[in-house]
Design a protein that fits this description.
Layout (H helix, E strand, L loop, with lengths): L2 E3 L2 E4 L21 E2 L33 E3 L2 E5 L11 E5 L8 E4 L33 E4 L10 E6 L11 H4 L2 E6 L4 E2 L16 E4 L6 E4 L5 E6 L4 E6 L18 E4 L4 E6 L6 E6 L5 E4 L3 E2 L9 E5 L4 E5 L6 E6 L4 E7 L19 E4 L4 E4 L8 E4 L3
Parallel strand pairs: 20-24
Antiparallel strand pairs: 1-2, 3-27, 4-5, 5-6, 6-7, 8-9, 9-10, 10-11, 12-13, 13-14, 14-15, 16-17, 17-18, 18-19, 21-22, 22-23, 23-24, 25-26, 26-27
């Protein structure tokens, strides 16, 4: 969709069929290449003071935060959390020939910041912005025509680590849903959407790329919570078998999940039971299939990674986090594993720095024919083409 700030077009509507932007055209499949002028967020720094976190603005993303994809744009919606109070909304349009980060909402002034609260204090008109929060796996784009009022949004299903919070608030408050409208670049009013009814934290979250529905799972429960964006309501995807069957779905705490649109299932690769395991959940029936036999280079245990379905080649791409920074390919049918790429150690700009996480900073962009990867603030965005 086209995004307009004031009278300025800040994001293109789409990528023309068969015509990639200039930076993408020379790239070859299955190789990481940098997108020029995207390192250090194209020079962007927080515009609000005081700076309580890193002065260079790296707290926007290096502190346990992810990005939300909407069409060909990538968003940091009030990311930060803990010591970073700034709640600006920043976006980059990868459909542009020369992508650059842009601030679309500067956020609140410091005197409105409230610790351990989902929203900051209202301004003189009563308008409230969402709190700066570690976004983990929580940020997702919802396209025009999907929500009840038809408006496109960036949505957050956030569960803990807000500004000023020294621990986990999720078990007490439950994952909260907040959203930023793209029509007028404003946050929806608190309570616009119901919060997730189950109180757990550090959840694995994925999105159906066709409906934009969001699935959330963290606790050791016999269900997955589903947020249907067309109605703005939560429901349960009940899974089978159930506890205490060892074949049941287990908690995906701090592990990535993906939505496989070709096979209509949710998948999560994890070591939550002590050994490598791939959980597959049929989204129509809730039936769980557990894969424990793999062929080839089995990925080691690694949390805070990213898990992506490459639709072009019907394969799963696992980006391993927590200092095990490598890209692994997992066949979606034979479960054969292949090591595709190993990142150099920090501090080179193509390494993962800071907290060692990926979350959704490795994301598949269908129109662009590949996956964008942003290791950390000082690095350029890298692109991994999945087709020519």
């Amino acid at each position: 969709m086209a995004i307009i700030k004031g009278d300025t077009l800040v994001a293109a509507a789409s990528v023309s069929s068969g015509q990639y932007p200039a930076w993408r055209q020379p790239m070859v499949p299955n190789t990481f290449s940098p997108i020029p002028n995207t390192e250090n967020m194209s020079g962007y720094k927080w515009t609000k003071t005081p700076i309580l976190g890193p002065a260079d603005g790296s707290g926007i993303i290096d502190g346990w935060s992810s990005l939300a994809r909407l069409d060909n744009t990538w968003w940091a919606p009030a990311t930060g959390g803990h010591g970073e109070w700034q709640n600006a909304v920043v976006m980059i349009d990868l459909a542009a020939d020369q992508p650059a980060w842009q601030e679309l909402d500067p956020g609140d002034d410091f005197f409105r910041a409230i610790t351990n609260s989902p929203y900051y204090a209202p301004d003189d008109t009563g308008y409230r912005r969402a709190t700066s929060t570690h976004s983990y796996y929580s940020a997702w784009g919802v396209r025009t025509g999907k929500t009840p009022d038809g408006l496109a949004r960036i949505m957050r299903v956030t569960d803990h680590a807000r500004y000023g919070d020294g621990g986990f608030v999720g078990p007490f408050n439950g994952p909260e849903v907040s959203s930023f409208r793209l029509t007028d670049l404003k946050w929806d009013v608190p309570g616009r959407w119901p919060d997730c009814p189950h109180k757990y934290f550090w959840g694995a979250t994925c999105q159906d790329p066709d409906t934009d529905d969001i699935y959330y799972h963290s606790g050791d429960y016999d269900f997955i919570d589903k947020f249907t964006v067309s109605t703005g309501t939560w429901s349960l995807l009940n899974t089978t078998p159930v506890y205490p069957d060892p074949g049941r779905v287990v908690a995906w705490v701090d592990h990535a999940s993906l939505f496989d649109k070709l096979h209509q299932r949710i998948a999560s690769f994890h070591y939550m039971t002590g050994s490598p395991r791939l959980d597959l959940v049929d989204v129509a029936t809730g039936a769980v299939t557990i894969i424990t036999s793999f062929i080839g280079a089995i990925p080691p245990a690694a949390s805070s990674g990213a898990f992506v379905h490459d639709v072009d080649n019907d394969r799963y791409l696992l980006m391993k986090g927590t200092q095990l920074h490598a890209l692994e390919q997992v066949s979606s049918t034979t479960w054969a594993c292949t090591l595709l790429y190993t990142f150099p150690a920090f501090p080179p700009t193509t390494a993962v720095g800071g907290d060692g996480s990926w979350f959704t900073r490795f994301t598949y962009f269908p129109d662009l024919g590949g996956c964008a990867a942003w290791p950390h603030y000082a690095s350029p965005i890298l692109f991994f083409p999945t087709r020519a």
